[in-house]
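Chain A, query sequence.
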Amino acid sequence: MTSPQNQVLGTETIKSIEKVLKEHNVQKYSMKISEGSEKGQNFTSIVVQVDIDGCDNQNNKVHKSFIIKTGPFDEEIRKQVKIQDFFIREIYIYTKLFREYELLQKEKCITNIFKSYPECYACTLQTSEESIVLQNLKLSGYKHWNRKTPIDANHAFLIMKEYGRLHALSYAIRDQKFSVFEDIIDNTKPTWSEYLSKGDTREFCENCVNQALKSLDPVKDVMVYNKFKNFATNVHEIISKCVNVSGSDQYSVFAHVDSSLSNQMFQYEDIDNPNKPTSISLFDWQMSSMSSPTIDLSIIILSSTDKNLRHEHYNDMIKQYYISLCSMMKELGTNAEQMLPFTVLEQHLKKYSIAGLYISTMLILIQYMNYEDIPNTMEDRTLNFKLHDVEQYNIRMRDVILDFDKYVMAPFQEQILSSEATKAFDDILKAQGVTNYCIKIRALGSEQGQNSAALVYQVDVNGHDNTGNNVHKSFIIKSAPLNNEIRNVSHIRDAFIREIYVYSQVLCEFDSMQEEKCIINPFKSYPEYYKSTSQPFEEFIILQNLKLCGYKHYNCDMPVDLDHAVMVMRNYGRLHALSYALRDQKLHIFEQIIKNTHDDCFQNFQKHDVRAFCKDRIEQALKSLDPIKEKPAYQKFQEFSENMFEILPKCVDSKLTDKHAVIIHGDCSLSNFMFKYEDFENAHKPTAMRFLDWQLTRLGSPAVDLTTFLFSSTDKKLRDLHYDDLINEYYNSLCSMLEQLGTDPMKMLPFSILQQHLKKYGIFGLFMAALLVFVKSNKKFSIRDILHDTKQLCFKLIHSEGARHFTTTVHVSRVKVYRNHKDSEESFEETDGISEELDLERDASEQPEAAGAIYVEELIPREHKRMKKVPKYLSDFELD
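Chain A, predicted structure.
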């Protein structure tokens, strides 16, 4: 051996090469050493290509070529970085782990085995002379992709497929040979975050992250900028938590970790498509460790693809990985759904992909560094780098960060537009005469507690009409989550089938009836419906984007004012009127609607976790009451808390709500209303509104809608002043609409029946309000006020002086409270601020029914005047 060779390769390494050549019967050879990798590909080792020209036993010429990976000789570097540990790990992987993978595949008679790594011929762990002798893949036609150029779809899918097969072997070993798996765990503990957080390496990594931050516009990208800035500030703490996933974690796998393009080579053997890769080989396993499988995936997707590919195929890449993983595990005899359910993969993508973003900041920056500044090993690590194309770097890096936020940090990694949804949009746009269009999709932010049963996206379309003019359209698509746990707990499929039925059938019947009756101002307080599908796991509804028509959400953290409350109550009156009219005039259609909106929302109460959730919220509400100062209300609500799972189903059981039940909205939270403002003299006064979210629509008492809204969306002051007025607004609106539709209001819902329903079924509204207010967690909303108001206001008789169906010959200006005493005048007392006498005749035979009950005079025509018991205290709720 020559002196220069000894300077590059240590004595032990040369001995290893000689041993390999002897095994291959190579004699009388010469050795040529050249660089084996590009600058910037290896930071913890020196890689050289060794070409051998010699003769075999028959004196025939022989050419051999190897890749030799050695540790750096510099003692300072070796003190800073545990070089030998990296080589111990990689040698273990080549000599032990991969052999276990090969053995398992042989045992299972796998036809297309996973062997996507170079052959290892020899290795040594001699201190300061660590080396690995590997196959030179170039001789087999493998090539590097230009790592400065993002990969195309063919390369991306092949990479994802092979990583699926790699991870499948890890899961199968865990499942079938756990003792072997434990040995793998012991020898591949995560260490790379420690390596990246020390000395000059730490500073280099921090510079990469800070440089990436500069690619974002702090104004245009303000939300993402602030998130990434927080990440940059706490990068080492965050990454440490992401990568230190122990082997004891149920879903951890043996991961490549250093899954950059520089550690992948491709073979092209398709003569008809020479640019399409047919196989891949992975190398550089020094950072490999037990980890989440999504570490590999996120590094590949974020560092190696561009914005266009991610936009078109992000979900396809994830699916390709998972299909390959499941297929390989099935061949190996392991249940993929048990080892890595798709829902867990989604969760891991969200939780651990930040590590992929972190690595991508380094990989992309190196691609745009001036060649002389690129660090090759730890020996020449430089911190004063310069970028040769800052503009292109900023574009690429910004796209990566924004896409990370868009695709990874979304609540669930699901295909936003399935093939069914895409076809639906094609049909809609074709019908509207839109051609040559492009679609932009963005997730709509929601407050805590909103859209728990759906994913909501805004779909913007830019295209041309038939005359070539620019056209802009905007839609809302509401799609079902794929997460099985959520689907099962929330009965997602049933909810979508119900809502699709409401939009496609129920509201259409309402429209038809109004057309038949020539209603001048028809009820259309809902978004326009375009398309939907109830196909399992692809459920979606495409609706009008009301924002384009000037509709806005009210600030859900604030209680509504009187104008908004009146608007809501009037619209509920009109909605319920249509239901009553349909029941009165087209009973067969009404019965069909009942059949298709059968109430099942309380089947969830059979589930332990749902019961625990609701009970916890109601117990929190109970704590808002003073058990001494507010003893009656406290005791009654405590009774409700203890028995609510028996009480509540009775409130929504359509069989118990009798002939006065209607098709109710069901989900009457403020987040499901949008308002329009077109009064220029009073810009804050709504002129129109729309109801959203019909997934809980069902047959029920009208009181459920009313009380849910009033106690979840108004404050104490408004209820004190206007509770009665708001009930009047509802009832007047109901009666007016029914008369226009040709149905007698007194037949369908007499005012006295409404009062009874408020008493009997209003507890459900209180329950819903307690849940909604708890979710809002806003000081402006007091759950204590709500419970207190059920004592003072909720079921007080309505002072309906303007009620339409009442005669004007009777008016009520005073209310008298009676207790069970013969002499009612002596028993008069002031209660809750109501201290005026009621000045009108009373039948002496009518006496109060129970001690302590509150009675007020009902405003009805004089000929039907009678005393009625109505609930005014929480203690008057019917809980049986």
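Confidence is low (pLDDT under 50) at residues 377-383, 410-415, 445-449, 778-877. Residues 240 and 364 are 21 Å apart (CA to CA).
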